[in-house]
Amino acid sequence: MHPAFSVVFFTTATGAGYGLLALLGLLGGSGVIPADFWLGLIGMALALSLIAAGLLSSTGHLGRPERAWRAFSQWRSSWLSREGVASVATFIPACMFGIGWVLVGRSGGWVAVAGLLAAAGAVVTVCTTGMIYASLKPIAQWHSRYTLPAYLIFAAMTGSVLGNALLQVFKLGSTAMLVWALLATLAGWGWKLATWGYNDRLEIPTTANTATGLAGGMVRSIEWPHTEENYLLKEMGFRIARKHSAKLRRITQALAFAVPAILLAIALFLPSPLGAIASVLAAPLQFAGMLVERWLFFAEAKHTVTLYYGRE
Predict the structure, then answer these.
(1) How far is CA 24 from the centre of its chain?
(2) What DSSP assignment string belongs to the chain?
(3) What CATH code is carried by the domain that includes residue 128?
(4) pTM of whole model > 0.70?
(5) 260, 236, 127: which is closest to 183 by C-alpha?
(6) What is the predicted pLDDT for the residue at 75?
(7) What residues make up the domain containing 53?
(8) Closest Cα partner for 151 from 18, 3, 5?
């Protein structure tokens, strides 16, 4: 599949934004994180800005972006439409929570309820995003048990690393938050390795023979559907060389998982402000690594429509 940067950035930014929003909603609403004005303002602004920027960037891949609003009407059958509805609905409790926690300076009561609803909305929205891809049967690499959990794990991972960096800057960090961010990063690493292992061993059952229903021998086309590059080949027939894929996988492991995990582990033993610096460095490095991981997520996927163009 063609890895358009608009969609790559969308899935990365919204995942981190919703992960951070869920964390703030749960911990801030319950009073685990104190109702500090600047902490709340910067944290909520960062979470909502990432979400908004990701959602806006996703329209860049549409042929008619001005008609994006029409997608909301198809929520009964489309995961893309459900994602749009869920993302807009989540802004309502998120704004209520922000008003109570940041402007009023309260936690508990209705603020805790709003924070819980915002966190639930964030989880639901990430699930709908994951299902957009997990529901696509023609792409075997996505239509698997690994896709949906990956979106949830990566959102929790990037949101936790961002949240930990924020708390460290405001000198409100804790060992528990550091350990959680570290464990989430290691969980994301393990899940990504398991996903790659599954995809590398995957034997796609669909062939030109099964697509045409002709058994025996090898079915081949004597006249291709198109003689030149077309939209289908550009969008769904994108191919990446194996050596480039291996290199980008190493970059992903280093930036998204290994280096952030090392920095977080070091931060556990460093005094302030060195621990805070290590925590802050982990966040942008991980975000950059996740951009590479999302690019590979699209580039390594194979659509069965390419069978009609002679590609296995």
Answers:
(1) 18
(2) ----HHHHHHHHHHHHHHHHHHHHHHHHHTTSS---HHHHHHHHHHHHHHHHHHHHHHGGGSSSGGGGGGGGGGTTT-HHHHHHHHHHHHHHHHHHHHIIIIII---SHHHHHHHHHHHHHHHHHHHHHHHHHHT-TTBTTTSSTTHHHHHHHHHHHHHHHHHHHHHHHTT---HHHHHHHHHHHHHHHHHHHHHHHHHHH------HHHHHT--SS----SS-S-SS--HHHHHH-----HHHHHHHHHHHIIIIIIHHHHHHHHHTTSPTTHHHHHHHHHHHHHHHHHHHHHHHHHHT--BGGGGGGT--
(3) 1.20.1630.10
(4) yes
(5) 260
(6) 75
(7) 5-309
(8) 18
Spatial distance between the Cα atoms of 305 and 100, rounded to a whole number of angstroms: 51
Peptide bond into 273 cis (omega under 30): yes
**CA 195 to chain CA mean position, Å:** 15
Assigned token pair, 44 = 């909520």
User: Would you say how long the chain is, in residues?
Assistant: 312
What Cα–Cα distance (Å) separates residue 253 from each residue in 27, 154, 186, 259? 29, 13, 11, 8
Instruction: Check if the beta carbon of residue 108 is closer than 8 Å to that of residue 31.
Output: yes
Residues in CB range of 79: below 8 A, 6 or more apart:
128, 131, 132, 135
Q: Which residues contact 125 (CB under 8 A, 6 or more apart)?
A: 14, 18, 83, 86, 87, 90
121 in Cβ contact with 100 (< 8 Å)? no
243 dihedral zone (left: phi>0; alpha: psi -120 to 50; beta): alpha
Over the chain (312 residues), the average pLDDT of each successive run of 10 is 82 95 94 89 95 85 64 78 91 95 90 96 96 88 93 97 94 91 97 94 73 69 64 63 85 96 94 90 96 91 70 58
The structure tokens listed for 59 are: 């329209």
Q: What is the domain count for the chain?
A: 1
Backbone angles phi and psi of 303, in degrees to 5? -95, 135
